[in-house]
Design brief:
Oligomer: homodimer
Distance between the termini of chain A: 26 Å
Shape of chain A: globular
Number of helices of chain A: 15
Largest interface: A-B, 47 and 47 residues
Strand content of chain A: under 5%
Order of helices and strands of chain A: HHHHEEHHHHHHHHHHH
Number of strands of chain A: 2
CATH superfamily of chain A: Farnesyl Diphosphate Synthase
């Protein structure tokens, strides 16, 4: 086992390298022809997300045989740039006013600027990803086209109380899980690992990403606004998260009708009703159990890698991510 | 000299190969995980643009030593996919209702679907471009980040009657000219040509692209709706095209005040006023002369290539493009 302090230090060390690279990239863009678009994107890019995608890419690279983390840095940058591009575009049609504590670009600068800033980060992200071999480029591209698929599928299921767990997994595998899985799988390839190890790390990223999304689902229902995680965004938008899908399957008769009414006509004064129904159906504990299962499987896959400090840190990231409050 | 018929056949032959590849790509996407996004994008992609970017990429590849046009096909596809992605996103904030004779995606399916469909084509375009060497990937990426720069700069000059010719060229070099120039320069690299020849073809693409944009500017002022080119879009949007910038520079006193008033308070019943003022300032003939200069320089650059059928066809494309009505 590694001590909490050494975990924190180990993670911080990688994140510092990443932030330096990201800031250098931003500075380079600002002082070059990309200036106006980067001026727009800089705030959201540097406002400090969790950096989970780049962190996992860096640690996976190290845990699968990589020797010089600068080799994987363009991949790490690519994952964060593309992730931020999708956030900027998502925020437009989700009509979100704030992101990472700052006004969203479309609310401060308007629709056109937000679309263009997102496109700009996409291009920058692809240019970083495009520096690697064809198998990595293909993975990044396929992850991006799958994001589009997942998002469109999610739209089709807005407010659809008949959404199945299969629909749910198909949506999140596109939107959220794919980028994690292709990130870890690509990082292994960049490290020179075999196709088998890369596929193993794809499966790891899949389990990690599903746990991550399910934690997000729970936080949307239980999150503490004072911790910086406003609750209810998904419910208000009619997004069918797994706890809701589970409760709709478990409850019958008047209880299901009650839940359907709460979801179809949701407002903030119905939180108690919704929470009671989700507790009645055991949906919170069911979702927690699913998260545990995904994390367990992620750790099991990870255990097949040879011992290394980076491998221990990935385990810790998975455990920290499971227990996150924001 | 080549006969008109053989020019037409030569161009059509390349376009047919391209359309087949594009349709195969669309079919593959439809029958795979990209289905919902491609379902949205298919219409605008296959509705038949001029295909000038892919055509020039293919012909440049051949004229600079390429032997098998399938080698350059991913580049040709990439250029058209990315171009169409920018059209879909542009149409959102230009509030255009029709594109290539069909309803725009945002007007038929809404904002979110149009943003996602554009992002999807970007990803697909980059994946095709990402199959080439780093120098080509860098050119494509830099052309895309420059599009963003040009678009943002254009926004800053909307309705700005003090816009200079330098501003104008900086805007169009980002938005329109760059993709042409990087397309022809990249095609030369894919053909295995030297860096010098690639730079030469970059200059060719720059001259071609500027002529292309100036023709567009003229058509916006003189275009015939019955030919499928509605006029006045730029004027209504307050876009400062070169004929307008020229007239604002040439006219003085009450005539300039009159022009400023027409541009600041434009409506369709002021066409005659606008046309008279542009004729008075000689802005139509000035723009036509500029177009001729750019085409002449493009042809002069081209003349340095060794003789080939493809080279002759590129000249013809430049001449046809100069005289186009739509």
């Amino acid at each position: 086992m590694v001590s909490k302090l050494s975990v924190k230090r180990g993670i911080q060390k990688r994140l510092n390298v990443f932030e330096e690279e990201l800031e250098a990239l931003v500075q380079e863009a600002i002082s070059s022809k990309g200036a106006p678009a980067m001026d727009l994107a800089r705030d959201v890019l540097l406002a400090g997300g969790k950096r989970l995608r780049p962190l996992l890419a860096i640690l996976t690279y190290e845990a699968t045989g990589g020797r010089d983390i600068h080799e994987v840095m363009d991949l790490a940058l690519s994952s964060e740039l593309i992730h931020t591009a999708t956030l900027i575009h998502d925020d437009i049609y989700d009509q979100a006013r704030f992101r990472r504590g700052r006004p969203t670009i479309h609310s401060s600068h308007g629709l056109a600027h937000a679309i263009i800033a997102g496109d700009y980060l996409f291009a920058l992200g692809f240019s970083k990803g495009g520096r690697y071999d064809l198998d990595v480029v293909d993975m990044i591209a396929s992850s991006c086209t799958n994001i589009a698929r997942g998002e469109l599928q999610q739209f089709n299921h807005i407010g659809d109380l008949t959404t199945t767990p299969e629909d749910y997994y198909s949506i999140i595998d596109g939107k959220t899980v794919g980028p994690f899985a292709t990130g870890t799988a690509s990082a292994a390839l960049v490290a020179g690992a075999s196709k088998e190890v890369s596929e193993m790390m794809y499966d790891f990223g899949t389990e990690f990403g599903r746990a991550f999304q399910l934690v997000d689902d729970l936080l949307d229902l239980t999150g503490d606004p004072e911790m910086g995680k406003p609750r209810g965004t998904d419910v208000h938008e009619g997004k069918m998260t797994l706890p809701l899908i589970h409760a709709l399957t478990i409850l019958h008769g008047s209880e299901r009708e009650h839940l359907a009414d709460v979801l179809n006509n949701f407002s903030d004064d119905r939180w108690n009703e919704l929470t009671s129904l989700l507790e009645l159906s055991g949906s919170f504990s069911y979702t927690r159990q699913l998260i545990q299962n995904h994390v367990d499987r992620a750790l099991e896959i990870l255990s097949k890698l040879p011992p290394s400090n980076a491998k221990d840190l990935i385990s810790e990231v998975a455990l920290i991510s499971r227990n996150r409050r924001v």
